[in-house]
Specification:
With 381 residues, the chain is an all-beta fold. The chain has one domain (11-379): Tachylectin-2, Chain A (5 Propeller). It contains 1 helix and 26 strands. The strands form 7 sheets. It has a 4-stranded antiparallel beta sheet, with no helix packed on it. A 4-stranded antiparallel beta sheet has the order 2-3-10-11, with no helix packed on it. A 4-stranded antiparallel beta sheet has the order 12-13-14-15, with no helix packed on it. This is Putative GH43/DUF377 family glycosyl hydrolase. One of its GO terms (molecular function) is hydrolase activity. InterPro entries: Glyco_hydro_beta-prop_sf, Mannoside_phosphorylase. Keywords: Glycosyltransferase, Hydrolase, Transferase. Belongs to the glycosyl hydrolase 130 family.
Length: 381
C-alpha cells in the first residue's frame, strides 16, 4: 500500500509556460497560425563546469486553435529547399478521436495510429548551483528537428556525464519510427547529434553516470501492446518494465539478459513503470529514480519512486521503497491552474549532487519544471 510522499522544505516550480519566449522559438515565422506553449516540462539536468545547473526543457509548442474548417491540425517538420521548415497537416474530424489533449488518434486502422497536438523542441536553461534561480535561457542553443525521424519533435532529454563527456538521450518522434537518439557535448551547452541508438518505442533510456567494468550501461523501457503473463501467485505484474543494456561506446547497445526493475503485483500504483533520472553512483550503489503509473482515466497517476542497485551488477536491487518519493503537488500549480490539462502527474528527469542533498528536476503536470531538494538521508539504510 502506498503512503503519501513526504513534503520537502525546498520544492518549487522553476519554469512555467509564461517563461518561454516563442518569438525566439525554432518555429517562429514558419506558420501562419498562432501557437502557444502547451507545456515547458520534463527537464533533463546536469551540472556544468562553472558549478551552475543546466536543465534541458521540453517545450511543447501547440496551435492556439488546432480545429478549424472541420479538421484538426498537427505541426510537422520537413526538409525543404535544403533547409528545414514547419508545416501543418489537416485531418478530418470524423476520422479522429480527440479525447486526450496531448494527441489525437486516427480511427479505422488495424492498429493504433496517432498524431500530436504539439511539436516539442528542447531549450537549454542555465540555473544557479542550487537550481532555484534562472541564470540564462540559451535560445541560440535550442535543439529542434533536423532529420526525417524527428518530424513530430524531440522530447524528454536525459543527461549523463560519463568520463568527462556529456551524453544526452532524447525521444525522436515520426511516422518512420519512435526512437531514442543520442547527442554529445564537451561543455553541456553545445550539442552534437550522434545517432539513433534504440529503435521503435524503446523510451526512457537513461545512461548510468559512470562505467561498469569498462562498459557504458543504460536503463531502457521497450513498449508494446502485448505482454506475457507471469504465473498465478507471482510477485510480479506483467507490463512495461525497466530493462538494462550495455555498450562499449554508448552507440551500439546490447540488452542485458537479467531483468531490471519490474512492476510488483502487490500494488497497482506501479502497474506501469519507466526510467526517471539517470542512475548516479553513491557509496552504497547506483541510485535510480523512476516513475510508476497507476491507471486512472486517460493519463493515469504518475509518481516518482527510488531504488538502489548493486555497483557491479545493476540488475540486483539492494533496497527500494514502496512509498512514493514524489507526487504531483497541486499547491505548486495553483497559480497556473487555468493552464492545467492533465493532473496527478510528476515525471522526474534529472538529479544532481548538492552536498547534503540531491537537487531533483521533474516535469509537473506536463506543464512546468519542478525543482526539489531531497536530503541524502532519505535514501540511507
Amino acid at each position: 500500500m502506498n503512503t503519501p510522499a513526504a513534503p520537502f522544505a525546498v520544492d518549487q516550480l522553476i519554469i512555467t509556460p509564461a517563461d518561454i519566449d516563442l518569438r525566439r522559438s525554432p518555429l517562429a515565422g514558419h506558420l501562419d497560425r498562432e501557437t502557444y506553449v502547451l507545456g515547458a516540462f520534463n527537464p533533463g539536468m546536469t551540472r556544468l563546469a562553472n558549478g551552475n545547473l543546466l536543465i534541458m526543457v521540453r517545450v511543447a509548442e501547440a496551435l492556439r486553435t488546432p480545429i478549424y474548417n472541420g479538421h484538426v491540425h498537427a505541426i510537422r517538420w520537413q526538409q525543404h529547399d535544403d533547409k528545414g521548415r514547419y508545416f501543418l497537416d489537416a485531418w478530418p474530424l470524423e476520422h479522429v478521436d480527440t479525447a486526450d489533449p496531448r494527441k489525437f488518434m486516427l480511427r479505422g486502422g488495424g492498429w493504433k495510429i496517432m498524431a500530436l497536438t504539439s511539436l516539442s523542441w528542447l531549450l537549454p536553461v542555465e540555473l544557479s548551483p542550487d537550481g532555484l534561480k534562472v541564470v540564462a535561457m540559451h535560445y541560440d542553443r535550442a535543439i529542434a528537428p533536423t532529420h526525417d525521424f524527428q518530424c513530430y519533435g524531440v522530447e524528454d532529454a536525459r543527461i549523463s556525464r560519463v568520463e568527462g563527456r556529456y551524453l544526452m538521450t532524447t525521444c525522436s518522434v515520426s511516422p518512420e519510427r519512435h526512437s531514442t537518439t543520442l547527442y554529445s557535448s564537451e561543455n553541456g551547452l553545445d550539442w552534437t547529434f550522434e545517432a539513433i541508438v534504440l529503435d521503435h518505442q524503446n523510451k526512457d533510456m537513461l545512461i548510468f553516470e559512470g562505467l561498469i567494468d569498462g562498459h557504458y550501461w543504460a536503463q531502457t523501457r521497450p513498449l508494446g501492446d502485448l505482454y506475457f503473463a507471469y504465473p498465478p501467485g507471482s510477485e510480479w505484474r506483467a507490463g512495461p518494465s525497466i530493462n538494462l543494456a550495455h555498450s562499449p561506446d554508448a552507440l551500439f547497445w546490447k540488452p542485458w539478459p537479467a531483468p531490471g526493475i519490474r512492476p510488483h503485483a502487490r500494488t497497482v500504483a506501479t502497474a506501469r513503470i519507466g526510467g526517471g533520472a539517470p542512475p548516479i553512483l553513491t557509496d552504497d550503489g547506483w541510485l535510480t529514480l523512476w516513475h510508476g503509473v497507476e491507471p486512472k482515466e486517460i493519463v493515469g497517476i504518475y509518481r516518482t519512486y527510488w531504488s538502489l542497485l548493486d555497483k557491479d551488477d545493476p540488475s540486483v536491487i539492494l533496497r527500494t521503497q514502496d512509498a512514493p518519493l514524489l507526487e504531483a503537488n497541486s499547491a505548486l500549480t495553483q497559480p497556473i491552474d487555468d493552464l492545467m490539462y492533465v493532473h496527478d502527474v510528476v515525471f522526474t528527469t534529472g538529479i544532481a549532487d548538492g552536498g547534503d542533498q540531491y537537487v531533483v528536476a521533474s516535469g509537473e503536470a506536463d506543464l512546468a519544471c519542478r525543482i526539489t531538494h531531497i536530503p541524502k538521508s532519505v535514501f540511507a539504510a
